[in-house]
Amino acid sequence: MKRWYLSAALIVLAFSAAAGEPEKEFSIREFSVPAGSHPHDVAPAPDGSVWYTAQSSGELGRLDPATGSTRHIPLGRGSRPHGVIVGPDGAPWITDSGLNAVVRVDPADGKVSTFPLPKNRRGADLNTAAFDGRGILWFTGQGGVYGRLDPRTGRVDVFDAPGGRGPYGIASTPDGNIYYVSLAGSHLARVDTATGTATVIRPPTSGQGARRVWSDSKGRLWISEWNAGQLAMYDPGDGKWREWRLPGESPRAYAVYVDETDRIWVTDFGANALLRFEPESGSFRTFALPSEGARIRQLLGRKGEVWGAESGVDKLVVIRFR
Asked: Could you give phi then psi for residue 119, rounded to 5 degrees?
């Protein structure tokens, strides 16, 4: 049964740009989603709509930004969806910790297809997914695993993560390679997509709590370091690391995303803000979020837009930029 809702509140704020930049270069807008949804991850769709995981209600949501209306699709009894991405087929793919399965929803008719993990892999605590260059979906599980799903055959393979518990964010580079980060293990790992073997790569700061990861157009990995309140960058080309502490007294870096201009966006729970980082100058620009306690846990975007799921206030937020 599908459910439809109309957003109750739309908030639009315009930010004045820094000196030398035009007015209203950036704008921020919030969209309310059904109360109790607690959206965790968000994924803009090719048709202009936006998917989000309604973690607390066990549903996949779809927002129409033009009208503010939302539609919810139940994913199954016991569902607790975490991540959502749009695959090469244009469909949303969900990592569902409650179902211990990867889920696909047909964007045309809402049909739900479930790909469960093997029975001996219960309690994987599925987190996030990414497609490699061959169209294979790779996923992480905080229970100490990572794995892959071949959409053509439905086969699911699961691997024990080096270091045990903690695999969290995952990303694909432009050349189709897969990297994930371990929150509990405080490391980056490169996955050999042919063999499934993961190789640990240690950041300079120990115990930093690597939470999310994203690739820029050059294949460099950008990482949000939760415990350290830092943004890190690893360059596979030369094996070098760089780290930058977020501004403020008690930063907590959660989500990270690289836009089409290779600017880096990161969310800071400590400041209740979304930050834009300029790699060339090493400077941060801070955008205070309209709602207190927003708790953006994940970011994704499309040209000129960065979307976040505000899990703490049952809203989605978008920053549009020129």
From this structure: -60, -25
- DSSP letter string over 264-297? EEEEETTTTEEEEEETTTTEEEEEE-SSTT--EE
| Cross-strand pairs, 277 | 264, 284
Q: How many CB atoms are located within 10 Å of the residue 247 CB? A: 16
- Which residue has tokens 């960058």? 233
199-229 burial, b if ≥16 CB within 10 A, otherwise e?
eebebebeebbbbbbbbbeeebbbbbbbbbb
Q: CA-to-CA distance for 62 and 68, rounded, in angstroms?
A: 10
Tell me the C-alpha to C-alpha distance, in Å, between residue 71 and each of 9, 49, 258, 317.
Answer: 16, 11, 28, 17
Query: What are φ and ψ of residue 120, in 5° steps?
Result: -85, 10
Q: In this structure, what DSSP letter does residue 8 have?
A: S
* Amino acid making up residue 38: H
Query: What pTM did the predictor assign?
Result: 0.93
Taking only the tens of pLDDT, the chain with its 322 residues reads: 444 434 434 434 444 334 344 347 999 999 999 999 999 999 999 999 999 999 999 999 999 999 999 999 999 999 999 999 999 999 999 999 999 999 999 999 999 999 999 999 999 999 999 999 999 999 999 999 999 999 999 999 999 999 999 999 999 999 999 999 999 999 999 999 999 999 999 999 999 999 999 999 999 999 999 999 999 999 999 999 999 999 999 999 999 999 999 999 999 999 999 999 999 999 999 999 999 999 999 999 999 999 999 999 999 999 999 8
For residue 150, what is the DSSP state?
-
- Using DSSP's 3-state secondary structure scheme, residue 226 falls into coil
